[in-house]
What does this fold into?
Amino acid sequence: MMKRIALFLCVVLACSVVYADTSVGERLQQVSVNVKADRAQGSGLIILANVNGKTTTWILTANHVVDGLRQVNTVIDFDGSDKKQVTYMDAEVVQEKVINGRGVGEKKFFAKVMSVDSRRDIALLRMRADDEFNTGAVFYLSKEIPPPGTALFHCGAPGGQDMGGTCSLTDGIVSRVGVSISQFGGSEHGIYDQITCPAQPGSSGGLVALGDNGYIVGILTLGARGTDSFHWMVPVRSILAFAEETGAAWIFDPSVTPPASESEINLKLELNSKQ
It folds into this structure.
């Protein structure tokens, strides 16, 4: 137990050192990316997790952003029967480089779809290049749900990369907690929190963070038509439940023991999957 606590404190302190000279908004921009999946575009955030002394790089986004990359093939099983095999094409991850308030370039990388949950609208990607980023998101791990009125930031790519870049920052509040959305099943897997941070198509999958410290409390999932400030986020409690079920808890929570090696990373590809 003491070892887990020590590990958690080391990671938090390391993040504090990385973030020491930047504002909350700037930190969030540093971990925000654009996710391109065939013709679809969305937003995402960078997560760094240590495996046996090596940094692994992950992208969290919304499932509906990468859903178009899903392929279902029919293969012949050992007994001669037909079997459905699900695979995903790679997504493209783009991060804008901003210096002194101006975009000066961008990084582009491919990312493998590692795990998705269509009911919760969550997708976790693994970057093909692990050593390109030195700043990752820090997640809100408290059991206490941020109440209505809590100040928030959202960072993403409203309108897609060409219009919103990869790190447009807006602010708002938590306006309602525990909304059931029938589009995603309306069950215990489809509970969302309503927020007022302005966003547009292209913002889906973008981070939502506490305004005072930048800890991630959710990702944007969808909004009401005709307004830019009536949206829902996948709350961090659902993200952590997804992570637990797919075998990825160690990626989000530094107190969870990671795999001993790369070869032991084994995530379930689909939760609540389509047929």
